[in-house]
Every structure is written in C-alpha cells, then in structure tokens.
Amino acid sequence: MSVKLLLEKAHVEGIRTYEVYRREGGYRAAEKALKTMSPEAIVDEVKKSGLRGRGGAGFPTGMKWSFIAKPEGVPRHLVCNADESEPGTFKDRYLMEFLPHLLIEGLIISSFALGSNATYIYIRGEYAWIPDILEQAINEAKANGWLGKNILGTGFDLEIYVQRGAGAYICGEETALIESLEGKRGNPRIKPPFPAVKGVWDRPTVVNNVESLAAVVPIINIGGDEYAKIGVGKSTGTKLISACGNINKPGVYEIDMTISVEDFIYSDEYCGGIKNGKRLKACIPGGSSVPILPANLLLKTAKGETRYMNYESLSDGGFATGSMMGSGGFIVLDEDQCVVKNTFTLARFYRHESCGQCSPCREGTGWMEKILKKIDSGKGSMTDIDLLWDIQRKIEGNTICPLGDAAAWPIAAAIRHFRDEFEWHVKNPEECLVRNYGLAGYADPRPIPA
Amino acid sequence: MKVLTEAGLNKVKEIVARYPEGKQKSALIPVLHLAQDEKGWLSADTMDYVASLLQLEPIEVYEVATFYSMFHLKPVGTYLFEVCQTGPCMVSGADDIINYIQQRLGINVGETTPDGLFTLKTVECLGACGYAPMMQLGKHYREHLTKQRVDEIIEECRLKAGVLN
Ligand code: FES
Q1: In CA terms, which of A182, A205, A342, A424 is 20 to 30 Å from B54?
Q2: How far does residue B14's CA lie from ligand 1's centre (Å)?
Q3: Helical H runs in chain B?
Q4: Cβ atoms of residues A123 and A164 within 8 Å
Q5: Which helix (H) or strand (E) holds A179?
Q6: Higher pLDDT residue, A221 or A58?
C-alpha cells in the first residue's frame, strides 16, 4: 500500500462538502500557514519538499515560486492550471471533482505565499460541470472565513475565480493560458519575459498545475522534509497516475514513486493486468507527448534493471531507450493494438491543436498526419517512413512553445522502436487493413499466463 | 437590441467584476460561453453584440470565437454528440462507437439529422480516457459507451425532445 497524501480521504462520504472536509482535518494546513508562517517560510517548505510540477514539465515548484518578481505596488497573481488536456491524463479532473476543498485549501496557502489577492483557476471548457463544484467549494470556504477580506485576522485578502477555457490543448502551456485568460487566442508568448516577471495583465504571475497546488496542503501539514522522505531521489512525495488503455482497472491512482512499472501494471491494487488476458505490447507512460516504449524496454531499462514509476527511472536511457514521467497519463496498449494507427491518432491530435503560430509545427503536424494516414491505410512507401522521421526532426526545438516537441516525440519514438511495424504496413498493403502486426519482437518478457 | 436575457446580462456584469479595471476583455471567453448557451451558437450578430457589451472591436471577438473548438459558428442540432477519437479512446473501441452512431442516426460525422435533433462531431481527448469510449453531451460526459448505451442515449434525447417515434 502506497502512502496517500492527496487521495486518502477521497472516498469519505460527503468529502466534497466543507463540513466533512473540515471534520476530516481539512483547512488545518491553511490555518497553520496563515497564522504561524511567513510567506517566505512557506516557499522554503515547498522548496525543501522537492515537489516537482505535476503538469508534465516536472520543474521544481518552490524554485518557480522564488522567481516571482515583487515590484512595488504591482499586484501579483497565482493562476491554477486546470486545463488538463494531454491525452491519457485525467487526474486533475478527479481531484477537482472529488476533493474540491483540497485544491481550494492549496490555493489559499499558495496565494498567501506568493502574495496573490486574486487567484484564477483556468479550467478546460469541456469540464463544464466542474466549475459548479469548485464555485460551491469557494462559496463554502468564504462563508467560513477562509476567503474574502482579512482572512483569519491576518490582513490577507483573497478571492478565487473560476475561468473556463473553450477547447484548446495549447492553453495548457502557461503563456498561452495567460493569453487566453486575457481574452485572446491561445498563442504562446516568446519567453523571456517569463510569467514570473510579466504574466497576466503584465503582472508577475505564477502558473501551477492543480495537483502541484493540492500537494502544498500535505507539505504544510507534515513539513517539507517529511514530504521529501517519501519517494526516491528527486522524485519526492506522491504522484497521481491516470491509467487507461487496455487494462483491467483504468482509473486514477496515487503512488509514492517507489513502485516498479511491472507492479503498477500487474498488481490488483493498480491496473490489475492487461484486459482479456492479452499480452502487453507497449505503453506511453506519461501522457501522449512522451515517447512510447515497447514492453521489453518498459519493464526493464536497457541496462536490464527494473524500471520504476518515477521521474528518473522512466527517463533512464534518454529518448533512445527511455521515456518520461510527464503528466502521469499512463496509456497501455495490448498485443492487438496497431502502433501505426495509434500514432496516427496522436498526429491528428497535434495537428488539430497546433495554434498555427510557428510554421514548423503548423505545417509539420499536418504533413505528419497525412503521411501516417497513408501508411496506416496501406498506401505508404518506404520513403514515407524516412520523410516522417525527417519532418519530426525539423519540428523539434524549432517552435516557440513545447507543442512542437510534443508532436514530434511520439512519432520519433514510434519509428525508433517499431520501425518494422511501419515497414510491414508498407510491404503488406492489403493484409495491414485486415489484421494487426501483433507483438513481434516487442513481446512482454513475462511468461504467457497459463 | 438586447440579444442576451436579463439574467445573462447580470451574469456578464458579475464576470467583468472578476478582473482589474479596464481588463474586461478577459471576460470574453466566459461571455461567449454564456451567449452560446442562450443562443445555441454564435452568429455574427451575437458576436457583434458581445463586442459592444465588452467594448471590444468585433474582430477581437471573431478572432477568439474561431480559435476555440467549443464555439459553434454554425447552428448545431438540439443534441450534440461529441465523441472522442484520440488514442486512448481509439484503443478502447471509439471507432466502432462512431460508426454505430453514424449508422443509427443516418448521418456522417459533422452532419445534423434532417429533423435538427442530432449533430455528430468527433473531438480530441476530453480527459475521460480511463472511462472510454466516451462522448460529451451538453454539460456532461457519457462514458463507458457501448452500442446499447448509445441506443439508450438516443432514446433519452428523443423522449426529452418529445418526438418519440
Ligand atoms: S482519449 Fe478520449 S477522453 Fe482521452
């Protein structure tokens, strides 16, 4: 059993309400922070905790906070990034739906630490029912003196507002999110200036993911040092993983990052093994943007060591033989899945979501989609595979924001590890329409279950 | 001319008050949602009206309305089925569900039934990958879709619309 810091109370009846959340120990961290700690001390605790941004980039949260500029007389803002849109990722939704007060409490502490008197939750527009849940929690918190003017007599004022997006993956990128919050198209900005200096309405702004901000609550409760003891190396604390694809028990799990990938997939406590008794073919372990790994490289690193569910281990081997923790969107593919087709759907996704500002991404994602569609439908040629490789190389690193990289990486990894499957499509234009390539050499190294 | 209801206009005031003085442009996306909820879609007239409400140039509104996939620039059916087709849903059988809906409604993706009741669209990952296949219907998600679930949903919509055949 992994220690639970975020979801421990998720199943308590009525935990969505202020009353039950408070009875279960809620708002203790906010009380401790506002009454007994200075903003600097809170930032220090978060630094000590080693918490890394849970949205995907994994940048240390405490360090990000310490960059915020404090020019005289200019208001600062905290913005909560709830624009969860990375395919495979649905953990923030779970937190907001079932533990809205945990997020609100995290926002109160974090806003106090950063000096934000108006904090915005920017939530993807499709999560259309969640703003009601959050606003209800905000109203309850306010009625109980945790929001509004002069909170707990500290002189600190705070309002939290929920802002809906309207369908744009790119708005998960922090500068695009800021543009969108200002009522514009979600075109990412060139950095610098960084949001910490010039963010929303040109004011110093910190943008953090939902899970990162919720994690501030246990950090304050148990202290940064204790938090850092959980986990391993630079993967401290707990991480939410949203598991999906061909597994028996899809869902949101909290892990302490010491568990092996094999245990995560096969143990009944988590994914419960591959659905329908099939065998594991491949997995995209951190949301659709991270490299796909064939089963043999997923369970063990290229060095033959056990791979674990944490930042370091998942990226062991770099892009040649490793992947990334990313957002924690864990997508499992069984032996019946076609890697070409799966990659095609992701290419279509990135083409659809490219904001169109940078030519390599705008044009490149369109071409990648077209070529993959061609190969998938048995009309591709060998040179198409090389062309695909070439295009992704020319996108990576050549765009304003990371969407270009995010579009390129899954395609690069698919070709790198599954080139023979692509070639098989080209060589068997008719057969590939009626059957899948199957496991071939990527077989799950585990013995076939009897 | 008033395009929005009185309640809607009050809500607009409340939204604008969330931002600093002079930054009412920030209210644009929430107000477009509100207008679309009332009108069903965003016509040029509705967008011009939103522009005047927020003291923006109409082009600023068109720019935004055309960027975000949730805004409808053409009328849609009373019930809009938005089925996710991205990787995790695809490996869980989204294609079969999309085909089945097309067949059941007699329309292709992107079309509306002649009676104006149903529109079918495909969308990209909606954050329900573990509960796939899925679709958005109005404010909520319908998850773990099977052919039978699809039949039930269509029936439910027809009942609601009072045109049970
Ligand atoms: S892939 Fe369909 S909801 Fe995520």
Answers
A1: A205
A2: 33
A3: 6-16, 28-39, 44-53, 58-67, 87-90, 94-105, 147-161
A4: yes
A5: helix A174-181
A6: A221
Antiparallel, parallel or unpaired: β A118-123 and A159-164: parallel
Residue B130 within any structural domain of the chain:
yes
Task: Say whether pLDDT at A450 is over 50.
Answer: no
B34: closest chain A residue by CA: A164
pTM for this predicted structure? 0.96
Distance, CA of B42 to CA of B65 (rounded, Å): 8
CA distance B32 to chain A (A): 9
Ligand 1 pocket mutation, candidates B81, B95, B97, B129, criterion most atoms within 8 A of CB: B129
B40 part of a folded domain: yes
Cβ contacts below 8 Å, chain A against chain B, sum to: 149
What pLDDT is stored for residue B1 in this prediction? Answer: 62
Q: Check pocket membership of B128 for ligand 1, CB cut-off 6 A.
A: yes
pLDDT of residue A445: 56
The residues of chain B scoring below 70 in pLDDT are: 1, 163-165
What is the C-alpha to C-alpha distance for residues A46 and A224, in angstroms, rounded to an integer?
6
For the CA of B133, the closest atom of ligand 1 is 2
Top CATH class of A240-334 equals: alpha beta
Tokens representing A201 are 């309405």
pLDDT classification of A443: cutoffs 50, 70, 90 = low
**A277 against A160, higher pLDDT:** A160
**B33-75 confidence digits (pLDDT tens):** 999 999 999 999 999 999 999 999 999 999 999 999 999 999 9
d(CA A160, CA B19): 11
Interface-testing mutation among B25, B26, B80, with chain A (most A C-beta atoms within 10 A): B26
Structural domain including B46 reads 6-67
CB atoms within 10 A of CB A279: 17
Calculate mean pLDDT across residues A55-78.
95
Closest residue by Cα to residue A328 from A132, A7, A129, A54 = A54
Report chain A's mean pLDDT, rounded to a whole number: 95
Distance B141 CA to ligand 1 centre (A): 11
State the architecture of A18-230 in CATH terms: 3-Layer(aba) Sandwich (3.40)
Structure token digits, residue A290: 């991270």
CATH number of the domain bearing residue B123:
3.40.30.10
pLDDT tens by residue, A201-217:
999 999 999 999 999 99
